[in-house]
Amino acid sequence: MLELLFAPRWSPYLAGAGIGLLMTLAFLLSNRPIGCSTAYLKARGMLGRLVAKERTGAMEYYRRFAPTVDWQFMIVPGVVIGAFIAAWLSGTFAIELVPPFWAERFGGSFPLRWVAALSGGILLGFGSRWAGGCTSGHGIGGNIQLSIASMLASAGFFIGGILISLALFGIPWGQGVWGLVGGAP
Question: Considering the entire predicted model, what is its pTM?
Answer without folding.
Answer: 0.72
